[in-house]
Amino acid sequence: MQYRRLAKTEMDVSVLSFGCWAIVGGFNWGPQDENDSIAALQAAYEAGVNFYDSAEGYGSGYSEQLLAKALGEVRDQIFIATKASPNNFAPDDLRAACERSLQNLQTDHIDLYQLHWPNREIPIAETLGVLDELKEAGKIRAYGVSNFGPHDLSEALLCEKTISSDQMAYSLLFRAVEHVVQPLCVANEVSILCYSPLMQGLLTGKFATAADVPDDRARTRHFSKERLLAKHEEAGFEAETFAAIEAIGLIAKSVGESPADLSLAWLLARGGVASVIAGARNAEQTQRNVSAAELTLSPDIIAALDEVTHGLKKRLGPNLDMWQSVSRIR
Questions:
Q1: Which pick of 98, 259, 276, 283 has the fewest CB atoms within 10 Å?
Q2: Has 62 been annotated as catalytic?
Q3: Mind listing the pLDDT tens digit for each residue in 101-144?
Q4: Which residue in 58, 62, 113, 170 is the catalytic one?
């Protein structure tokens, strides 16, 4: 496993991090056996993954509790990140949210505490001030943001606070961060943490056509607005999406790698990326994800992957919200 320094800290994180949302099941994940969740977490630790990303909103704290149950005995050897929900950004609410997460995680500190989505009703300077307070008290070691686009991130940076990271949706099939957010993060030494790096299975080759993708995974702007759970008003880019997936698969075959490994390794070659957050629901999925952390792509392969996904990047445009036409991420 490789490790990279998280910006503005003295902490190193594994380039592959374990996303702790899917292990709670429900939503679009389906039923989940707790033993499988624990085995997935433990397999990640045994493979050298030290970075575990959760949120108070994942299963209303259950994700955090599972993490404590699986890896509590090695707490001092892992890096725990979790997130506060935007409805808890008022000072007293944020302090209480932090305490709940500490209790769920059975720990005395959170390594990286993140603001899950922007809350424009509460001044960001006020919220960041509480994060400084929590850091000074030793309850958190660093803090970051999530889903903060150029406007919100710039506003936060103007507060001259120590923002270590911005967690954004980023994958070969969704490259909107490259328009403005990635250069902004690089210029201001903010680590990029990538979520949905495999686009909920699309980049594993699991689905051959758009029709094969179940409605709960076809909510993004890649798919038609006619899909049952879609919340956008766009025609979608299904042909372009699956043409890109096919092309990625051919490139993967040419180098003897899986499309998933190729997709994760490509992200790790992007500027400003500290870690790629990949979920797993059992030990086998964890082991498959981990293999990508050891894969280094040649410049030619990186360029080829850039080229076959450029058209889709252009069609989806700079809107950072994968799910809605009127972006919540600005």
A1: 283
A2: no
A3: 999 999 999 999 999 999 999 999 999 999 999 999 999 999 99
A4: 58
